[in-house]
Structure formats: C-alpha cells, structure tokens
Specification:
Order of helices and strands: HHHHH
Strand content: under 5%
Distance between the termini: 42 Å
Length: 87
C-alpha cells in the first residue's frame, strides 16, 4: 500500500503548479455555483430552465472540469446577484 501512495505522490508532484492552480480555481467556481444553487433551492434542471441551458451543461459546470468564459461568469453573477469570482 505504501508503494501506491508513494507513486501517487510522485505523479501528483510532477503536475506543474499552474495546472494545480487552474484545477483549484475550477473547483472553487463549481463549488460557489453549487452553494448559490442551494441557497436558492434550485435543482440543476431548474437552473438550466431559468438560464436557457441544458441540464447537462449545468452538470458539466458543477463537475469542476468546465473552462468558464468571462461572459458565462458574468451571466451567473448577474443571475445570482452575487460575484462568482473576485479579482
């Protein structure tokens, strides 16, 4: 078991810092959207309907693997009335 953990640490250690930072930011954005949805009591389908999107797109947003555009972030900030990110 230690061999597997060591190998995992080795592999993760080889990931460039900018990639790690990007992943962290992506998950922070998806978590923020999830929290805002919960605050409003919105399901994925309800959010999709209100934004004119497909539920599968909302699922992709919440996966932490979506590369958001500034326009999408602005649209979400406007919809929720709260900033999704701060610069």
């Amino acid at each position: 078991m230690k061999d597997i953990r060591n190998k995992h640490r080795e592999i993760v250690g080889q990931v460039p810092l900018e990639i790690k930072e990007g992943i962290g930011l992506s998950f922070a954005i998806s978590n923020k959207i999830d929290v805002l949805m919960q605050e409003r009591g919105l399901s994925k389908k309800q959010l999709a309907d209100q934004l004119g999107k497909r539920p599968s797109e909302i699922t992709r947003w919440l996966s932490g693997q979506h590369n958001f555009t500034v326009s999408t972030l602005a649209m979400l900030s406007t919809f929720f009335g709260k900033s999704i990110i701060s610069v």
